[in-house]
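Quick one: structure for this chain?
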Amino acid sequence: MLFENDKQFWFETQRALGHTTYGGADTGEVLATAARITPGDYDSWYAEWFATAQVIEAEARQALARGHRVTARDGLLRASNYFRCAEFFLHGDPTDIRIAQSYVRAVAAFRDALPLLPYAVEQVEIPYEGTTLAGYFYRGAPAGSPAPTVVMHNGFDGSVEEMHFYGAAAAVERGYNVLSFDGPGQPFSRHRDGLVFRPDWENVVAPVLDWLLEAHADDVDPERIALLGISMGGILAPRAAAFEHRLAAVIAIDGVYDLGLVSTQSLPMPRERAEALLRMPENPELDAVLEQMSAANPTLRWAFTHGMYAMGASSPRTFMAAYLDYSLANGVAEQIACPVLVADAEEDIFFHGQPELLFEHVTAPKKLLKFTSAEGAGAHCHSGAQRLAFGRVYDWLDETFAA
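Got it. Here's what it folds into:
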């Protein structure tokens, strides 16, 4: 384990390393980069990941110029992931030019790799409330042959490009079409349009499905469309499924039931009191307490800074107050009608206990998949065990659609 005293740095290293499975990293590159990083130092984290990404990208582009397409593809995919890593901890200052520099290069490297893949991937723009959502349509079956399709999105801090490693490539291998997209609050929409997260995710998924069923009417079996959400997507996707009945299945990796519980459980008081304090227009005393908590906890420090950025919040407290609106309580989970798969990671550092809560409240046909540390899959979203995790996930989906 690297970064022994900083769980957040270690998890993000493990996350990068886990993407080796589907071509997003190489073990030695990740370990060598991590070894150069000063623990807890966001500038050091950026500098070392950016340096690695630049080297890998340059070599990939040289390979492409010489006609070595496989080498170029592999390098561009890895560089894209490393550029994503570079800007990960910088969002405490949204004006930091390094954020956009890294993000633009991550997207460019990924898109330049697409024509080099052994299957067709189309860059798409999905109409959404006067603008568009960025995404990718992967063909897992021949054009004009209606096939089962997985619509997927990331969560609190991941990009649509990262979804290539977090489920898209695994689905295409099994003959599924894939439509991945960035919704509001996620990187493309946040960077280009300043859109922040919204709790009523069904109003994001509905136009995505509208576009899919119109633009790819001949490619998609409308009776076999699943929605998959990663991380915070584990509450967003089930929320959408509660109101969007064109979905034939929903997958939460990992399941989340109530972010309000996550937001209030760190405060030593009854939840009702904690909610009232978080929602106050001003509360200097609580603001000071949260600042102290942030200084003592690397995960909170990052969550507060990124949460303010992605939610459009002005302080850690207002970010935590925004979390209160993300819940499947009060009968929302019970409205899901399609089959539900809830994944659960034994050592999840963000949403421990939430998958069981979601599973308990779902009344539709359901399955709880538990992933353990003994099998190397106990980390949040099973980072480091993607082959194992997506094998089980898509086997369930195969059987669900067959039934």
